[in-house]
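=== Given protein ===
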Amino acid sequence: MPLAGLLALGLAATAHADGNPGYDRPGLGFAPAVLQAGAVTYEQGLPDWTRSHDGGTSSAQYSTDGLLRLGLGGPLELQLGSSWNELHLSGAGTSEHASGRGDTSLGMKFALPASGAFSWGLLGSVEFTDGTRALHNPQRQYLLGADFNWQWNARNTAGLYLQDVRAGGHDSQLLALDDGYALTPALNVYAEAAWLHDAVDGQGSQAGAGVAWLVTPRVQLDASARHRLSGHADEWEAGLGVSVYFGR
């Protein structure tokens, strides 16, 4: 899912004037800031898309990922996510199709107020196995992520994201670096590079870019794409999305 934490620091001042700390879409990582107590944000893929090759089999998946965020007060935020998926498999003379609801995830974000130009946050979540049989994970997945952001100046931000996912006794790690730039008070662009390691599938790397447009202080539209550079990783990942801050 679970998207760029660094964009939260580059959002227009109008968004912060409305009490909106930023969105977790798009990109890898999350915004190292939490909603105020009782505030609600909803983020939706329209959809997100992945394509990969494995052992002569090609797969393409379309996911309308949804994430509901609720401010609990202080440094805490509750997150609830799920998705609707379309999966297409082909290769070796076969073709398969599956569709249905994805697994449910429940997460908690911790983030203190920014200290000058620096901010950071932690996110822990569990993804259950309650999705459609053909699409759910074989075991529960436990995620721990940490996002660190630096605001270099009024327009430029940088971020470091670290993630570990444990499932079935195996761990998968991800390290991502981001650089973002505000073209206008409401239009942000970013580039990112990621390194992945899985105890079963091995290593891989990706690079990508995206854009986030703050249509109003409460509504953001986004678009992003990533491409595999080496090793074990999805060949392509891309997505469109909308995020809405409802306040309280």
About this structure: The two ends are 25 Å apart (CA to CA). The CA atoms of residues 27 and 175 lie 13 Å apart.
